[in-house]
């Protein structure tokens, strides 16, 4: 969700942003927020299972693709620092609240040691993505700086490192690490992102077929891997139909997914306050979902805008203006 590389070659513009990637990210972050709303996830568990098969793997592929291993060590470490600081603040807050609230990830007997363990090893909530991003990105960056090694041996070393992190240290999910690596492979193969992921309305057919097979709804299965590709293809189909204000809003959301990841848990918890009222009006939860999504997105951007205005973003994100 962070911007480590966002340029592509285009006619007349040698350094342009790949707006299609922003669009995919926007859809995936909105799905993430939607199914972090407890009522929606509990009421529609099968839909949640489908979405969980592809939405974070898509982010990991994009993150691996956007990793620029050609940067200086200092520049890259600074990038990681300005991910680690907001990650640490929000993960600490989430863990603390989990020790107070009767939520699914409730923490008993919160101690300093347990807090450090959650931050460094086993994060709670949606912040696991940033933890995985930092670890996978850091290892990848330095593997690709090893001298006099061709691409294939680098990838073998990278895969072994990720396997060690997962199977020996138990700090990342191996499938998640390999989705990140898939993005790295795509980037270093020289294949443009939009040449590999192509829009096709026909993708809807196998997507629906796989979605009807519960055994395939796992990101580590062949069916799950196919679903990730098909979902990204369908996102590109939607991109082709989006116009005007809707498109501008989606691209703005896609450029600022880090803000939404960091702050959205605050608003998904607050949604419980007005949940009973909206469910009495419309019991399926669709109105509640629409209101909660709008509330979360607007709330996150409001916090980020206030931080920009007060100069807090400089200390929190390392930027004067975080909203792009």
Automatic annotation (TrEMBL):
A family per Pfam: Acyl_transf_3
InterPro entries attached to this UniProt entry: Acyl_transf_3_dom (IPR002656), Nod_factor_acetyltransferase (IPR052734)
Domain Acyltransferase: 19-304
Transmembrane stretches, start-end: 23-44, 50-68, 80-101, 127-144, 156-180, 224-241, 253-274, 286-307
Keywords: Acyltransferase, Membrane, Transferase, Transmembrane, Transmembrane helix
GO molecular function: acyltransferase activity
Range of residues in the leader sequence: none
Protein name listed in UniProt: Acyltransferase family protein
